[in-house]
Every structure is written in C-alpha cells, then in structure tokens.
Amino acid sequence: MSAPLLSVQDLGVRYPVRAGLRRAEITALAPTTLELHRGETLAIVGESGSGKTTLGRAMLRLVEPSQGHILFDGTDLCALRPRALRRLRPRLQMVFQDPYGSLNPRQSIGTILGSVLGHVGVPRAERPARARALMADVGLDADALSRRPAAFSGGQRQRIAIARALAAGPELIVADEPISALDVSVQAQVVNLLQDLKRARGLTLAFISHDLGMVAAIADRIAVMYFGQVVELGTAAQVTHAPAHPYTRMLLASQPVPDVARARATIRAAAAAPLADLPSQIAPPAGCPFRSRCPRALGRCATDPPTLGITPQGALAACHNPEPAQGDTTE
Ligand SMILES: Nc1ncnc2c1ncn2[C@@H]1O[C@H](COP(=O)(O)OP(=O)(O)OP(=O)(O)O)[C@@H](O)[C@H]1O
Ligand code: SF4
Ligand SMILES: [Mg+2]
Predict the structure, then answer these.
(1) Distance CA 184, CA 310 (A)
(2) What pLDDT, in 10s, does the model give residues 178-200?
(3) Contact 206, 173 (CB under 8 A)
(4) CA angle in degrees (0–180, nearest 5) for 311-316-318
C-alpha cells in the first residue's frame, strides 16, 4: 500500500460543557491514531454521538484538536499558521449531511462554483467552462448554473455540493453522512457518483455513515467508533465478515450486511436507531465504556480501559476479550 496521504496521531478533542452549574469537559474524541492511504475509501461508522463527525472534522483541523498531530502529505496541520492552513485548505474538502443548509440560498450555482474556482486561482475567463465541466462531472445540465439551490431536489443539491468540493481540486474528501438526508431512491446514485469521481480523480475518501451494511459495499477499510473511540479498524471484509469487537458484532446484528452486489443495489436508509443509551460523557465509567452492554465482559473490563491491539482476525480492536477468529474455538 502507498504512503499515507493523511495520518493522525493521538488526535483528541474535548469540548467544554455545563453540568448544572458546574463547568465540565467531555471527550468527544479519545486520542486516535490512524492513517488514510492515497486512493482508499475509509468508512467511519458508529451510532449517533459516537464521535464520527468530530473525528472527520478534526482530521481536517476544522475543529481545534485538544491534543495530537495531523500529518497531511508530510505537513503537520497543527503547526501551520492560519494563512498557511488557508492555502492548503483546497486540498482538503468536506461534504456535509445537509444538502439544504450547506449551499448559500441567495447565490446561483454558477456564482457558488465561480467563487471557489476564483479562490484556487482559476482565471475569470476560464471559470464558466470549468463550472460547466464540473456540472457534467456530477451528472447535471449546464443550465443548472443560472439557478439557485431552491430549484433543486435534495439529491441534486448534494451533487452540487460535491461539485463545489471538486472545484477546489481536492486530494482528500471527508463526506459526513452525505446520503442520510436523501430519499432512499437517490442514495445509491450519490454514493456511486462519489465512488466514480474518486476513481476517476484518484481521490482519497473518508465516508462517515451510520450504516455498516452500505459502507461494506464501498469501503476499503472501516473504522468503528463507540463513545468517542475507534474500537475496531480493519479491512471491510475483516470488519463485516469476522468482527472482533463485540460492539461491531452488535452493530452487524442490527444491520445485517448483504453481499456486496446486493448491498450496491439496495443501499438502505442510513439512520439506524440507537441501540441503547450511551454512558455519561461527563463522568465516563472506569474500564471499557462498552462494558454495560457487552456479553463478553471480563473482570478486568471494569478497571482497565482497552486500547487498540491486533486481533485474531488481523484487524485492530480495543477489547480485552475479542471475538475469536472463525474456526478458532480457543477463547
Ligand atoms: N461543539 C460541541 N460542544 C459540545 N459537545 C459537542 C460538540 N460537538 C459534538 N459534541 C458532542 O460530542 C459527541 C460526539 O459528537 P459527534 O457529532 O462527533 O457524533 P456523531 O457520531 O457524528 O453523531 P451523529 O451520528 O449524530 O452525527 C456527542 O456527545 C456530542 O454531543
Ligand atoms: S473490553 Fe471487555 S467489556 Fe469492552 S468490549 Fe471487550 S470484552 Fe467487552
Ligand atoms: Mg455526525
């Protein structure tokens, strides 16, 4: 595998919150270390509140990390001054969940794309042709450029949001639940568009989703998050066919993964119902945060927080008692 395009080391985010009259802090992202390789799709999955958006935004330094480092193509983003960071920004783009809120309703699509193209130094005379080419790339007619966002459906707006991200000429796109606000009928089209663009342009993609079944069809690797922590990280096959972490197994049981061909054809509505209440983030439990829900908990799970280690399946999991590999009867 090629050198990583992005690597985060011990990246953590804490937020100040109020607990009654007291000031407190929550850990939205526990110190996390992972890499994104050039050209790969890394899916980040987990239930609501598990820290997916925080990780996706922190990776791009769109939220200020409380600790850790972000290396993008060899540059430490945390060490950059605001001006240097702004210069680098076009190479790192984000596509958001809400295609209704993410486009300025007062601007035409041509103006929206033109301002990004201008920002990255495309001469004014070349912008209209580039904007038309971007529309074609995302499967929309060029006459869309004269209209405002209100004229488009949710799926079309998400295509426009993708065109806007592409206009910057990115190498990495973090797509934060880009289909979960869309009708089921257009979800597959938008996912396939992202995958096609990724292949055609050699992009690297971090794809955030609730839906393990859907990401099994598109991801090279999957990071599973629980309570602000990556609890399992492995290839899509390892994570979906031989999960090592009991939480991943529970997620899979609630969202069975069909085979990849079927998953592509039947990408489902994303928002999975939360499985149960999460523990308090203001006063996190000792040991493993998944303990109260875990059928495999051991005595030490109450006291020792697990950290990522190699599993019998060859993936990484933060668990003292991972699920055995298939065919392995020793526990
Ligand atoms: N600006 C903030 N201030 C305080 N707490 C925050 C802030 N942003 C997120 N959080 C908290 O951090 C935790 C992780 O939130 P995050 O939005 O990253 O989760 P998520 O996995 O993306 O959830 P969802 O699936 O609902 O989008 C949650 O408990 C959330 O309430
Ligand atoms: S560390 Fe213990 S409680 Fe946590 S997931 Fe593993 S077995 Fe379950
Ligand atoms: Mg989120």
Answers:
(1) 37
(2) 998 888 889 999 999 999 999 99
(3) yes
(4) 90
Closest CA to 51 of 173, 176, 172, 171: 176
Which ligand 2 atom is nearest residue 289's CA?
4
Provide the pLDDT for residue 277.
55
Task: Give yes or no for residue 330 having a pLDDT over 50.
Answer: no
CA distances from 148 to 98, 111, 113 (A): 16, 9, 12
Structure confidence at residue 262 (pLDDT) = 43
Ligand 1 closest atom vs CA 63: 1
Q: E strands within the chain?
A: 4-19, 22-37, 41-45, 67-72, 75-76, 92-95, 172-176, 204-209, 221-226, 229-235, 309-310, 316-317
Q: Within 6 Å (CB) of ligand 2, which residues are found? A: 246, 288, 290-291, 294, 296-298, 301, 306, 319-321
* Atom in ligand 2 nearest the alpha carbon of residue 322: 6
In the reported structure, the alpha carbon of residue 298 is separated from the centroid of ligand 2 by a whole-number distance in angstroms of: 7
Amino acid, res. 28: A
Q: Region 203-209: what's the mean pLDDT?
A: 97
Rank 130-134, 279-283, 291-295 by mean pLDDT and report only the highest.
130-134
Going from the Cα of 79 to the center of ligand 1, the distance in angstroms, rounded, reads 25
- Stretch 132-144: mean pLDDT, rounded? 96
